[in-house]
Amino acid sequence: MGRWSERSYGAPYLTERETIAVTLYARGLTSKGIARIMDISPRTVENLVMHAKSRLGAKTIAHVVAIAVSAGLIEFTPETISLNNEAKEIRNGNQGSL
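The structure corresponding to this sequence follows.
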C-alpha cells in the first residue's frame, strides 16, 4: 500500500472533511467554492487537501483524487460528473443544490 496512512485494519483513509473536500475538487470546484459549501475558509480547504495529500502520499490534488477513487474512498461516477454543472454555478457565485 505504499505511503498511505492506514488505520489498524490496513486500508487507506481520509477524514470525513477531507473526503468531502476531495469529492468536491473531483466535481470541479475551487477552494473558494468548496469553502462556501462547507462553511469554512478557503485556507482551511487547502489545509484539508494538504493533509489528504500527506495521508495518501500524493503530490497533487489530481493524484489525491486518483488514489481516493482507486481505493474506493470517494465515488467518481457519471452521476458525480453530471454535478459539474452545479459546481460551475457555485464557482460563479450562485448557490446550487450541492
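Residues 42-56 form the longest helix (15 residues).
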